[in-house]
């Protein structure tokens, strides 16, 4: 028998890593409920609209995944992501006419709620003399926008919100979402802004109970999370328009790393951002382009996501047209 060549070897390794990840992951409690909600959402938004085809649907991932250290989890490895990028982008995708599946980290920023204070319940509301509760003057506009716009998007069936916490939940949910997204072909987009753990403790290797203190060194073996972007592009939803993100703290390596990810995972675009300037500027890297996108600083309330989503929405439309011509 011939020895497998290098790339087959790598593929087999990835396949076995992916299988090991899903085999050992604790099953989602609400799997059937998620599948039902998704199918309904995608069906609803696939009914033909004014142009005779269904809406474009984007899955926006947002916030950071945790990697638990114990099965009855007390401690976990987390990251900095606030979910601001995903929540803001969701608002602009809705404005651009998309239906949005918002896959977000529990407790992270929510669409339409970005201008609310950290503790909205206690800070936005006040008790009157008669002990009735009313919205305080300072936040009345922000609260109204949050409630009205959020309810409008959810109630009209344009926004489906699905929360995750752990890397196990996130990747299982992304796989579940990919299934019906695959069926809608190039109308589907993935906008993968979540900061996904690079390392995790496989469930079967994890201690059940709280790790006890007492020794000077905590010896926990973390293994690399399989590179699911490859699997998403190759198997889960090969025709969907796929945008991933690359974050670095060293601007000297950012574009090189983004280009590497673009080629390695066969993305349609990689959005490169640097930690300290991520709310001001991003660079969209494609196979033949490198476009710097900036927030309009002359407007106090402009977001970098405004021009970013405009650009990606145009690219997605062109991709859909190209796909039609190739059929
Ligand atoms: O969530 P946030 O608004 O605080 O930050 C956004 C971001 C930097 C997490 C996102 O733009 C991003 O780059 N996500 C991918 C990170 C990575 O795994 O490289």
Automatic annotation (TrEMBL):
SUPFAM superfamilies: CoaB-like (SSF102645). One of its GO terms (biological process) is coenzyme A biosynthetic process. Pfam families: DFP (PF04127). One of its GO terms (molecular function) is phosphopantothenate--cysteine ligase activity. InterPro entries: CoaB-like_sf (IPR035929), DNA/pantothenate-metab_flavo_C (IPR007085). Pathway: Cofactor biosynthesis; coenzyme A biosynthesis; CoA from (R)-pantothenate: step 2/5. The keyword Nuclease does not apply. It comes from the Eukaryota. Residues 181-295 form the DNA/pantothenate metabolism flavoprotein C-terminal domain. Keywords: Coenzyme A biosynthesis. The keyword Translocase does not apply. Belongs to the PPC synthetase family. This is DNA/pantothenate metabolism flavoprotein C-terminal domain-containing protein.
């Amino acid at each position: 028998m011939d020895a497998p060549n290098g790339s087959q070897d790598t593929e087999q390794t990835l396949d076995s890593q992916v299988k090991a990840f899903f085999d050992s992951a604790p099953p989602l409690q609400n799997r059937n409920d998620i599948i039902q909600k998704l199918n309904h959402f995608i069906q609803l938004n696939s009914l033909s609209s004014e142009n005779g085809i269904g809406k474009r649907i984007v899955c926006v991932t947002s916030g950071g995944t945790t990697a638990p250290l114990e099965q009855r989890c007390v401690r976990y490895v987390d990251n900095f992501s606030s979910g601001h990028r995903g929540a803001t982008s969701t608002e602009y995708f809705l404005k651009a006419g998309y239906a949005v599946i918002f896959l977000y980290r529990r407790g992270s920023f929510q669409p339409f709620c970005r201008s609310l204070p950290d503790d909205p319940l206690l800070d936005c509301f006040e008790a009157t003399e008669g002990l009735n509760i009313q919205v305080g003057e300072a936040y009345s506009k922000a609260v109204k926008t949050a409630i009205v716009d959020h309810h409008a998007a959810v109630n009209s069936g344009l926004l489906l919100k699905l929360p995750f916490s752990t890397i196990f939940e996130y990747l299982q949910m992304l796989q579940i979402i990919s299934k019906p997204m695959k069926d809608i072909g190039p109308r589907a987009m993935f906008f993968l802004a979540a900061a996904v753990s690079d390392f995790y403790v496989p469930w079967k290797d994890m201690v059940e109970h709280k790790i006890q203190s007492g020794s000077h060194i905590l010896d926990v073996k973390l293994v690399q999370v399989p590179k699911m972007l490859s699997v998403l592009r190759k198997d889960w939803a090969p025709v969907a328009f796929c945008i991933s993100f690359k974050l670095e703290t060293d601007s000297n390596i950012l574009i090189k790393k983004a280009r590497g990810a673009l080629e390695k995972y066969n993305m349609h675009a990689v959005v490169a951002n640097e930690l300290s300037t991520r709310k001001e500027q991003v660079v969209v890297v494609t196979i033949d382009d490198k476009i710097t996108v900036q927030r309009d600083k002359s407007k106090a309330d402009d977001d970098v996501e405004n021009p970013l989503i405009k650009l990606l929405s145009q690219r997605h439309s062109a991709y859909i047209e190209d796909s039609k011509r190739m059929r």
